[in-house]
Amino acid sequence: MGFRYVLVNHTLKVIEDVSLYNVWQRMAVLIKECGWTTTDKVEMLSEETSWNEIGRCVKSGYKSHYKAWSFD
Protein backbone atom coordinates (compact mmCIF):
# COMPACT_ATOMS: atom_id res chain seq x y z
CA MET A 1 0.00 0.00 0.00
CA GLY A 2 0.98 3.59 -0.34
CA PHE A 3 -0.39 7.06 -0.59
CA ARG A 4 -2.06 6.51 -3.94
CA TYR A 5 -5.57 7.57 -4.76
CA VAL A 6 -8.29 5.96 -6.84
CA LEU A 7 -11.55 7.11 -8.35
CA VAL A 8 -14.32 4.61 -7.72
CA ASN A 9 -17.21 4.93 -10.16
CA HIS A 10 -20.08 3.10 -8.47
CA THR A 11 -22.35 3.64 -11.47
CA LEU A 12 -20.04 1.92 -13.97
CA LYS A 13 -18.35 -0.32 -11.35
CA VAL A 14 -14.88 0.81 -12.38
CA ILE A 15 -11.81 1.84 -10.35
CA GLU A 16 -9.19 4.18 -11.89
CA ASP A 17 -5.83 5.43 -10.57
CA VAL A 18 -5.48 9.15 -10.02
CA SER A 19 -3.13 11.56 -8.30
CA LEU A 20 -3.97 14.75 -6.48
CA TYR A 21 -1.97 16.62 -9.10
CA ASN A 22 -3.94 15.46 -12.14
CA VAL A 23 -7.39 14.52 -10.83
CA TRP A 24 -9.24 17.13 -12.91
CA GLN A 25 -7.36 16.29 -16.11
CA ARG A 26 -7.98 12.56 -15.53
CA MET A 27 -11.70 13.16 -14.95
CA ALA A 28 -11.91 15.07 -18.25
CA VAL A 29 -10.33 12.10 -20.06
CA LEU A 30 -12.64 9.61 -18.35
CA ILE A 31 -15.68 11.66 -19.36
CA LYS A 32 -14.54 12.17 -22.96
CA GLU A 33 -13.09 8.73 -23.66
CA CYS A 34 -14.42 6.19 -21.16
CA GLY A 35 -18.13 6.91 -20.90
CA TRP A 36 -18.11 8.50 -17.45
CA THR A 37 -20.74 11.20 -16.89
CA THR A 38 -21.11 14.02 -14.39
CA THR A 39 -24.13 12.20 -12.91
CA ASP A 40 -22.17 9.02 -12.05
CA LYS A 41 -21.68 8.28 -8.37
CA VAL A 42 -17.89 8.72 -8.04
CA GLU A 43 -15.76 8.61 -4.89
CA MET A 44 -12.08 9.49 -4.53
CA LEU A 45 -10.42 7.13 -2.06
CA SER A 46 -6.93 6.87 -0.64
CA GLU A 47 -5.28 3.46 -0.48
CA GLU A 48 -3.97 4.32 2.97
CA THR A 49 -7.30 5.13 4.59
CA SER A 50 -9.80 3.19 2.46
CA TRP A 51 -8.05 -0.09 1.64
CA ASN A 52 -10.91 -2.24 2.98
CA GLU A 53 -13.54 -0.29 1.06
CA ILE A 54 -11.52 -0.59 -2.15
CA GLY A 55 -11.22 -4.32 -1.46
CA ARG A 56 -14.98 -4.71 -1.08
CA CYS A 57 -15.49 -3.06 -4.47
CA VAL A 58 -12.86 -5.23 -6.16
CA LYS A 59 -14.23 -8.44 -4.65
CA SER A 60 -17.76 -7.52 -5.76
CA GLY A 61 -16.62 -7.31 -9.38
CA TYR A 62 -15.52 -3.74 -10.08
CA LYS A 63 -13.15 -3.55 -13.06
CA SER A 64 -9.77 -2.51 -11.69
CA HIS A 65 -6.00 -2.85 -11.82
CA TYR A 66 -6.19 -4.50 -8.38
CA LYS A 67 -6.38 -8.28 -8.01
CA ALA A 68 -8.92 -9.77 -5.59
CA TRP A 69 -6.20 -11.82 -3.83
CA SER A 70 -4.54 -8.52 -2.77
CA PHE A 71 -7.28 -8.12 -0.18
CA ASP A 72 -7.16 -11.57 1.46
Structure write-up:
By secondary structure, the chain is an alpha+beta fold. The chain has one domain (5-71). Helices cover 33% and strands 21% of the residues. It has two helices and three strands, in the order ββαβα. It has helices at residues 23-33, 47-59, and strands spanning 5-9, 14-18, 42-46. A three-stranded antiparallel sheet has the order 2-1-3, covered by helices on one side. A hairpin with a 4-residue loop joins β1 (5-9) and β2. The longest helix is centred in the last third of the chain and has 13 residues, at 47-59. The model has no long low-confidence stretch (mean pLDDT 93).
SSE map:
Elements: E1 5-9, E2 14-18, H1 23-33, E3 42-46, H2 47-59
Summarize this structure as a short list of keywords or feature phrases.
33% helix; globular; 3-stranded antiparallel sheet; single chain; alpha+beta; 72 residues; 2 helices
Estimate what percentage of residues fall within beta strands: 15-25%
- Give me the strand/helix succession: EEHEH
Helical fraction equals 25-40%
- How many β-strand stretches? 3
Radius of gyration: 12 Å
End-to-end C-alpha gap: 14 Å
Low-confidence stretches: none
> What global shape is seen?
globular
Average pLDDT over all residues: 93
User: Could you give the order of strands across the largest sheet?
Assistant: 2-1-3
Number of helices: 2
| Oligomer designation | single chain
How many structural domains? 1
The main pleated sheet reads as: 3 strands, antiparallel
- Structural class of the helices, strands and pairings? alpha+beta
